[in-house]
Amino acid sequence: MRLLLDTHVVIWWLADDPTLSDEIKQLIDSEPDVYVSPATIWEIAIKQALGKLKEPADLAERVRDCGFADLPIRSVHAIAAGRLPMIHRDPFDRMLVAQAQYEDLTLVTRDPDLQKYEVSILGA
């Protein structure tokens, strides 16, 4: 299974947060194809600048360096994200949906609005 991690999932995984089930943690740890989008790192940096995410100060760098595959944002992803139905208005989440759709990835998320899109979802 090829996985794309939503922002909250990668943060929970990095912090070994019990909010993330052991089953999902094990799957993330064992799957060879686990991706993080630059949109996730951008979202973290913005939320920290706004004071919505606190410590650690280098969280964006920790996510970048945690060993998951980087999933570059391409023009086709941007076009697809812009054309998604307005079920979810968050541009970062819309990008993740578009990337998962276009790259045939399973999006790991707990966000119920993302489950309304035509995308493979693994509930976190």
TrEMBL record:
Which Gene Ontology terms cover its molecular function? hydrolase activity; metal ion binding; nuclease activity
**Keywords, ordered alphabetically:** Hydrolase, Magnesium, Metal-binding, Nuclease
Q: Where is the PIN domain?
A: 4-117
Secretion signal, residue range per the UniProt entry: none
- Which Pfam families does UniProt cross-reference here? PIN
Q: Which PANTHER family is this protein grouped with?
A: RIBONUCLEASE VAPC16 (PTHR36173:SF2), RIBONUCLEASE VAPC16-RELATED (PTHR36173)
Q: What is this protein called?
A: Twitching motility protein PilT
**Annotated organism of origin:** Planosporangium flavigriseum
